[in-house]
Amino acid sequence: MSLTWFHSIETLDWEELSALYRVAPLGNKNPADLKVAFGNSRFICFAREDGRLVGVGRALADGIDCSYICDVAVLPSHQGTGLGKEIVANLVSQSAGHKKIILYAVPGKEPFYKKFGFKRMRTAMAIFENPLAARENGYIDES
């Protein structure tokens, strides 16, 4: 697998990125919304193979205290190849120097992220736009 890495949104095809999230599967993300989200992210990471977008991730960060890694997505054809690991490692490296690096993950993927040193937080809390869907998908519980 010969990958090309880039860290800029200047030449990004937002429709292609939206399609990647859909098949990854990380849900339906509107191209215009992705443009805003990635444009507001301090760290971004994209991988292409033969010109095709195959993996992506981003982190919101304040430059000192906290970096929050989110939206790591890999095409199904490239899952299990180590690409996701490379994306997370890239974002962790870019986030170096922050007092804490937080990661938001799909339920069930915790063992993958533990390999990087991530630990389960006891105090993480969230307000979801759709709390019923968040509960059904295992992101929140009743407590």
CATH fold topology: Aminopeptidase
- Strand order in the sheet with the most strands: 1-2-3-4-5
Q: pLDDT average, as an integer? A: 94
Structural class: alpha+beta
Report the helical percentage: 25-40%
Order of helices and strands: EHHEEEHEHH
Task: Tell me the Rg in angstroms.
Answer: 15 Å
**CATH class category label:** Alpha Beta
CATH architecture grouping: 3-Layer(aba) Sandwich
Low-confidence stretches: none
Q: Tell me about the largest β-sheet.
A: 5 strands, mixed
Instruction: Specify the overall morphology.
Output: globular
Organism: Duganella radicis
Pfam families: Acetyltransf_1
InterPro entries: Acyl_CoA_acyltransferase, GNAT_dom, NSI-like
Protein name: GNAT family N-acetyltransferase
Describe this structure in words.
With 143 residues, the chain is an alpha+beta fold. The protein has a single domain, classed as Aminopeptidase (3-Layer(aba) Sandwich), CATH 3.40.630. It is built from 5 helices and 5 strands. It has helices at residues 14-23, 31-39, 83-94, 110-114, 131-136; strands spanning 3-6, 43-49, 52-61, 66-74, 100-103. It has a 5-stranded mixed β-sheet. The radius of gyration is 15 Å and the shape is globular. The relative contact order is 0.13. The mean pLDDT is 94.
SSE arrangement:
Layout: E1 3-6, H1 14-23, H2 31-39, E2 43-49, E3 52-61, E4 66-74, H3 83-94, E5 100-103, H4 110-114, H5 131-136
Parallel strand pairs: 4-5
Antiparallel strand pairs: 1-2, 2-3, 3-4
GO cellular component, one term: cytoplasm
Domain N-acetyltransferase: 7-141
Protein name: GNAT family N-acetyltransferase
